[in-house]
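ugh ok so i messed up the first submission bc i forgot one of the chains. this is the corrected input, ALL of the components this time, i swear. 535 residues overall. if the numbers dont match what u have on ur side tell me asap before i send this to the collaborators (the ones from the other lab, u know who)
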Amino acid sequence: MNPINDLLKILSDFVAGIVSGIFAFSPFLADLVTMGLAAVILCTFAALSFMGLTYVERKVVARIQDRLGPNQAGPFGLLQPIADGIKMFTKEDTTPANADRWVYNLAPLVIAIFALTTYAVLPFAPGVVGTNLNVGVFYLIAIGSGSIVAILMAGWGSNNKYALLGAFRTVAQLVGYEVPMLLNVLPVVMMAGSMSLVDIINKQTTLDGNPGIPFIVFFPLSALVFLISGIAETGRSPFDLLEAESEIVAGFHVEYSGMKFALFFLGEYVNALAVAFVFSTFFLGGYAGPILPPYVWLLLKAALIFFIFMWLRGTLPRIRIDQMHNLNWKFFVPVSIVHLVVVMALMKLFVTDPAQAEAFGGILVAPIVQAVILFVASMTVLLVSLAIAARRARVLRLQEEAILEQRRAENLAAARA
Amino acid sequence: MRTDFAFVGVMLVTAALLMGVALIAAALLRPKKPNKAKLSTYECGMETVGDTWVQFRVQYYVLALVFVVFDIEAILLFPIAVAFNSLTFFAVANVILFIVVLLIALLYAWRKGALDWE
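and heres the new structure output, hopefully the right one now
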């Protein structure tokens, strides 16, 4: 083993060795303690990255908007997350008299637990993964939907009209964007032939451990739709209808303050970072990369995706609720389904495995040729659907303009008369 | 296999404990001086009128129904995707037929206005 490349693996083996030495009398207890330690490390990593990300995001968005961002607490404002933490711990926290106490107080705990538990299946380096579930993709999606329950609990339990309206919107949005997300993970699962995240990464590396062709080359449309749905799933700008300040104040968490509010915030950031990690794993080859150690590659890829999130947040205005539903149900879902059919047909027609070509027929091609064919097909579906959408949008815009023109003429005539 | 899922349980318990400790620590540290105005429901300074827990838009219900159809479709497709390399041409044609039928269902819902948000 290379000491730098396998640093995480060596460290985890070392700790596991010590634990099994201490608890030599009971293998069950040793397993339990090892797993508990791993879980604590993963949760701490998630919570610390949340603290760091709040600072980085505020700085980056501030620079995009030509501001300085936090710069008072410590050098370059680096101690800002600590100051925020102290404030969160010591701020008075009220439970509204009319609220449903149990539901209201449990909601932040539920969202934080579900957000942290996503990290159980993310592979950080070869052999370093919380647990390599054979249904990892399913697990991620199931745990990801947990935050919907928490948001509905918060909105309902607050007994506040803004909160309930925000919760309704959020549930409709989160539930809707799950469909294109699922439909666009399917090509990845088909290509890898497995729902385990480790297998998905292995499929994107060559047999001798070098990076192979990442899945974004095979399915650019899937990658794009997955990324945008991921932003919508975590409720980040421009899909932050759940906390549209101008309409419903702060949405579902309007009644929360102090630590409970911090847990909602933690849930949001940890989920967004999890989406960045999952996107890197599914489409960018996960920890596979040349020269640098694997965990550095994974962090670099996730940081790039998170930077795109921050960039979009600093650039785009919030979209309207009907635009949000139209984008999902009238664009992403049909396009994803057509893309899925095209990919299924092409993957059966052009195979790379000689044994499979032998058994079922199909044309045997080199992996690179298959990649080119799928790339061209995926891009064609993407560009054709974009062209259709653009044409349709133009027709609607012209109709709207004609109606406005007519109204203006009527108003003018009425004013003259 | 069993230990694979045991870790998920350990992770759930650990996350619950850590976050619970944070909540309890905050509860011990923060001041607690409630009064009637603080505990009232927030509504931009107005007294809240009527019941919050009322009926909601039927549109949400329609979207939820469409969602259930496509979520179940996707979940049915996942095992097929895992076994994709061992499927025959005929089986793949069947799967494609199944997806196309659901695409027609989506177009029908679209035509009927179930997806319009006014």
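quick check: Chain A has a mean pLDDT of 84. that seems consistent at least. Chain A touches chain B through 90 residues (CB under 8 Å).
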